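Late entry, flavin mononucleotide complex.
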Amino acid sequence: MTANRALRSSQVVNIGDLRRLAQRRLPKSVFDYLDGGAEAELTLAENCRAFRDVTFRPRGAVAIADCNLKTTVLGHELSFPAMLAPVGYSRLMHPGGEVAAARAAGEAGTGYILSTISGHKLEDVKAATGGPVWYQLYLLGGRDAAEGALDRAHRAGFSALVITVDTPVAGMRERDPRNGMKELLGPSLFAKIPYVADILAHPSWLVSFLLDGGVPRLENIVLPGKGSMELLDVASALSKAVVTWEDLRWIRQLWPGPIVVKGLLTGEDAKRAVDEGAAAVVVSNHGGRQLDSVSPTLRALPEVVAAVNGQIEVLMDGGIRRGGDIVKAICMGARAILIGRAYAYGLAAAGEAGVARAIEILRGDVERTLRLLGCPSVTALDRSYVEPPHAWSVR
Ligand SMILES: Cc1cc2nc3c(=O)[nH]c(=O)nc-3n(C[C@H](O)[C@H](O)[C@H](O)COP(=O)(O)O)c2cc1C
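Prediction complete; structure with ligand written out below:
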């Protein structure tokens, strides 16, 4: 069965089904890069599990004629309350990569966040969608390269800048060295030999990868006098990526639009972001890929919401695999959600159509959950619709 027919079949009813299709199409090294987390993957698992701790409190005997899924984030109207998170190396998952994901987001009436670690030019990503696009900045390539990227992003029409602050170094994603990610992306053919059997066992991915020109360059990191940067493995890339509060002050001089700080888990850091002029924060632990054993994001959300106290918008990501998870996070105080793996599985399985299917599944879940809760709109969701554990109350 072709990927697109598989997407429409009764075999793809939830995000787990897209994950299985992605696993089938991708070489193990690429799938594990997408799917895996840091160290013992405790936070990766907890991000998903924490949603089980929060139960719903539905209102019975309520008929909803029109269920309104719309919300606004930084002044942009979204057709449903989830945007697509920055996902590096998307062009390795599928040649359509960031352009395909942005187009699917736009078609669905929502926004897309482009990672610095991207294989398509940011101008092409912007041109693919009528929806809002934000640029996520890492400083690999140094300040000169960042200045160039910010200027291009602003001129192309990116409306917000996302600064990710949870990557002082790369987390230890143990699946990557076992699968030879560094060797596979490196220049030495000899070093790749132990890992090629698995690549050859995935011919449809391999053909599309070769037709796309092989390992993409980092098109949005242009080194003065040298052109776009070569793709690095993630550990090398993130070892040079850190953005500090001092950098944020420098960036504020360069970027005229709103700045979103992504990767916070505590009230203290959230207050600092407010003081530094952020327009929004994203409660995030990078999908359990950085410091293992930090709290799941749903658990961290109430503390950040209380600390921010309505001064700026609070978004969250991590562990969203069903629309019901989106609804719970909004009830707990998030204005909207970012989804990472949930759409990346779709991208890896079938490009743009796979991302569209992921969004369609989550949107259907959100609408059904609202109706079952007896709540007419996303903006009417609040704590009264959920029962979190008592220990989660913010002191
Ligand atoms: C394969 C992959 C690559 C990622 N690359 C980036 C990145 O380049 N920049 C960034 O800020 N976050 C990155 N993230 C983190 C996501 O933006 C998001 O925080 C995370 O995926 C949310 O968790 P979820 O995957 O459980 O939805 C990446 C996540 C994944 C799974």
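The pocket of flavin mononucleotide is lined by residues 34, 47, 85-88, 115, 117, 136, 164, 262, 284, 286-287, 289, 317-320, 339-342, 344 (CB under 6 Å). Will revisit in the morning.
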